[in-house]
Amino acid sequence: MNILISGCLLGLSCRYDGKSKGLDSEIIEKLKAKHNLIPACPEQLGGLTTPRNPSERIGEGVFMDIGTDVTAQYRLGAQQALHLAKLFSCEAAILKERSPSCGCGEIYDGTFSGSLTVGDGVTAELFKANGIAVYGESAIGELI
Asked: Quick one: which H or E segment has residue 63?
């Protein structure tokens, strides 16, 4: 099965802080043994730079900690990631948990205090609406 995966989980330095959240190499090898992994970073696909100010979702919008509205970039990035997922016939996606783009089921609450709330990131929400199963990195075991 083809699976779109957040680039930061594969070790790409594309997170807002210019770092990655690379998965353990053993987990990546197990995934690769069963699936084709298609890396993508929706934030970069939407035109945001790396590094960049942290952002959080507030209602339907996404805002940086300095107040800049980056909703359009997040929506564009989600659309571009969906295009890739469809282009490669991805049935699932493994996305970075708690991200305003990729978070699935739980995201930061928009106060920039580290508090979490129930919700999905912009990309995760779009993927679900288009029939693509979304997994956070803590649920990878279900795919191995």
From this structure: strand 61-64
- Token pair for 132: 């693509």
- The count of other CB atoms within 10 Å of the CB of residue 75 is 19
Instruction: State pLDDT tens for residues 26-72.
Output: 999 999 999 999 999 999 999 999 999 999 999 999 999 999 999 99
What range defines the domain where residue 30 resides? 2-143
Taking each helix axis from N to C end, the angle separating 71-87 and 122-129, rounded to the nearest 10 degrees, works out to 40
Closest CA to 107 of 40, 68, 58, 142: 58
pTM greater than 0.85: yes
* Residue 67, Cβ density class (10 Å: 0-12 exposed, 13-18 middle, ≥19 buried): exposed
What are the φ/ψ torsions at residue 56 (nearest 5 degrees)?
-140, 155
Total domains in the fold of the chain = 1
